[in-house]
Amino acid sequence: REFTHRVKSVSMAKFTSQEVEALQRGGNQ
């Protein structure tokens, strides 16, 4: 689950909304 937390932190900084959604969806599943 560390990856998800990291993504949430960096998502707004580097990733785009669509990328974040895809990552969150993949992390949730």
The gist of it:
The chain has two helices and no strands.
Any overview of this molecule?
GO terms for molecular function: GTPase activator activity. The chain has 29 residues and is mainly α. It is built from 2 helices and no strands. The protein has helices at residues 2-11, 17-28. It starts with a helix and ends with a helix.
- Indicate the proportion of strand residues: under 5%
**Number of DSSP-assigned strands:** 0
Structural class assignment: mainly alpha
Low-confidence stretches: none
Could you list some keywords that capture this structure?
GTPase activator activity, 0% strand, single chain, 2 helices, flat, AGD14-like, 29 residues, mainly alpha
List strands and helices in order, with pairings.
Blueprint: H1 2-11, H2 17-28
InterPro entries: AGD14-like
GO molecular function: GTPase activator activity
